[in-house]
Amino acid sequence: MPKTKPRKPDADVNLRHGGHATDTCPRCHHVRNKKDQGKLLHGIPELTDSAKLRSVVGQIKDNLMQDKGLVGDPAAVFMMGVLEARISGREYYLFASSGRTAEPWIKPKHLDGITYHPGKWTPANPAIPANNRGWLTVRGEKVDLGADIQGVTRPCSAMKLLLGLGAMHLDWKSVDYLRMSEMVYVGPKAEDAKQMRVWHGRGATNSWTAHSCDGCEARIPYLICDVPPHWIENP
Ligand SMILES: [Zn+2]
Ligand SMILES: [Zn+2]
User: Fold this and answer.
1) In this structure, are residues 48 and 15 in contact, taking their beta carbons and an 8 Å threshold?
2) Nearest ligand to the C-alpha atom of residue 23
3) ipTM
4) Residue 77's domain spans which residues?
5) How many angstroms is it from 40 CA to the middle of ligand 2?
6) What are the pLDDT digits (tens) for 138-175?
7) 222 C-alpha vs ligand 2 centroid, how far in Å?
8) Is residue 20 in a domain?
């Protein structure tokens, strides 16, 4: 009998947004898990998902589904996102929905019933830059993105969350964590939801969690780089 290989347990339990710690950073050109004298250069070598955040975005989705106001637009399809971070000892909780409408889809009333840090969640709805230039990192530093990124201006929830954090221009001494979860809202009468459905279910631990779109996968690495200017290498 040939030996059968034991099935490998799925080690990749945590969905990542914007690649791995072993990738090279497009902003500072260092490998994202590089250390200097034992300390990581990047405060956020990886942007990961979390079960707690999935519960938050799931509650928001349930609330949206109950919202009679949204029945006015039963064909609505959009991405919802939530972010939590502890930076320099302070905690931040942000939510956002994709789209370019002045009125975001998610309103404060859609946060009812959230058991994870209730009352702490604040909306992020910054303007998305019109091209690849003049973006902000999470640390609030200007950055130009790659000129060849497809969908660079797409108004995704992930971009709103990260730009929203950058717009706070936080005192950036240390990063304990930065996590994000996303989910697709698909209205009952949505017809062209197919393009959103492909974003479903890549998370190893929750089939409802969305992974980031290609445009976000390419943009996120620039935005999460918090390496100070004197460490940035010219390619
Ligand atoms: Zn970097
Ligand atoms: Zn996206």
Assistant:
1) yes
2) 1
3) 0.99
4) 47-216
5) 27
6) 999 999 999 999 999 999 999 999 999 999 999 999 99
7) 14
8) no
Q: Is residue 3 part of a domain?
A: no
- Bridge pairing between strands 122-123 and 16-17: unpaired
CA distance 80 to 182: 6
- Measured in Å, residue 107 CA sits from the centre of ligand 1 at 34
Q: Which ligand has the shortest distance to the CA of 27?
A: 1
Strand partners of residue 179: 48, 84
Residue 33 lies in a domain: no
Ligand nearest to the CA of residue 233, numbered in listed order: 1
Are the C-beta atoms of residues 180 and 52 closer than 8 Å to each other? no
Q: How far is the CA of 74 from the centre of ligand 1 (A)?
A: 41
The one-letter code for the residue type at 214 is D
Q: Note whether residue 86 is domain-resident.
A: yes
Instruction: Say how many Å lie between the first and final Cα of the chain, rounded.
Output: 54
Ligand approaching nearest to the C-alpha of 218: 2
- How many domains in the chain? 1
**C-alpha of residue 66 to centroid of ligand 1, in Å:** 42
Ligand 2 centre to CA of 227 (Å) is 23
Transcribe 68-120 into DSSP letters.
GGGGGSTT-EEEEEEEEEEETTEEEEEEEE-SS-SS-S--GGGGTT--SSTT-
169-224 pLDDT per residue, tens: 999 999 999 999 998 887 777 765 555 555 554 443 334 557 788 999 999 999 99
> CB within 5 A of ion ligand 2: which residues?
156, 213, 216
